[in-house]
Design goal:
Elements: H1 7-14, E1 17-18, H2 23-28, H3 34-38, H4 56-59, H5 61-74, E2 78-80, H6 88-95, H7 108-115, H8 118-146, E3 151-156, H9 179-195, E4 200-206, H10 209-226, E5 232-236, H11 251-258, E6 265-270, H12 274-287, E7 291-296, H13 313-325, E8 331-332, H14 340-350
Parallel strand pairs: 1-8, 2-3, 3-4, 4-5, 5-6, 6-7, 7-8
Amino acid sequence: MQTDLHPLEKVLQERIAIIDGAMGTTIRTYGMTEADVRGERFKDAKKDLLNNGDLFSLTQPDMICDIHRRFLEAGADIIETNTFSATSIAQSEFFVDDPREHGRRKDPEFYQRIIEDSFLNELAWDINERSAKQCREWADRVANKTGRQRFVAGSVGPLTVALSNSPDADDPGFRVVTFDQVKVTYKQQVRALIAGGSDVLIVETIFDSLNAKAALVAIQEVFDEDRKKLPVMISAAVGRGGETMISAQTVEAFWTAVKHVKPLSVGLNCSLGPDLMYPFLAELSEKADVAISAYPNAGLPNPLSPTGFDLEPEDMARFLGDFARGGLINIAGGCCGNTPDHIAAIAKSLENQQPRELSTAARVLAA
């Protein structure tokens, strides 16, 4: 029934929704230092923290809120929480000694200590809940000011470990972490993102589809246990052959692996520039029967570019416009290298473009 649709679903029936750009890229433009990211809470941390962008939600909330504001004012309908690495497993990279530096290896016993670590668990919860609250505040502020509803997407990133392969060429059956351990760390993240006020959850930049499966199982378990359900968006990163980078699933196989979740949307992000992404996005659009999202990097990495990537706002606007004219997308934005200026250009280029027709989207053939 139409009345049962989530408000974002209604938007997707009417127009192409805009999702925000790259938090990490935009943070770099503020010239933050190691002292800035540490603040008082982390002043005694033993490792460098400047590349731990999620911590800024705790130590520099005004900057993070300013970035959310700028993306919203650029035209974003959906803003993502600053939680790409906000799990106990990912945060352990910054706060726990690496056993490999002492002749040992990371293994499930190591990661069991990580997921039971009270410091890391409290840290992960704080980042997720506070970041979601920051997004919620600014999404509502701008919505009230403009009269257009804005949505908070709780970002669930890919982790720093992989379930699909072994890091030891001499022991192909070895895994550093178990499926259940990954699921546990994701469940904590999901609960905190919901507690902070997220409208939807987005499992994104999927390099390893088995990691993503653990995230999706975690989400479903939280929904069942807490009796609260949000729409779920899913987005994979693919290589030049159109395969997920660690698990090497083709676009069609990836969709087959996740379609049972009945997501709000499925799509591609990160990894490739928009020119290289087009054929794989077209294949996904043909196979999937849900909304399609695309938020590619601003081309390939270039350390000489101010953003670290080649493509300027007008370039991204042109490529995303091509996606729209090809009838491929319902949600559009940018990943690495995309600043608020990029999102503003993308939003302007798509404001009169028709969204991909959900009612006529092809169904995947039965296996």
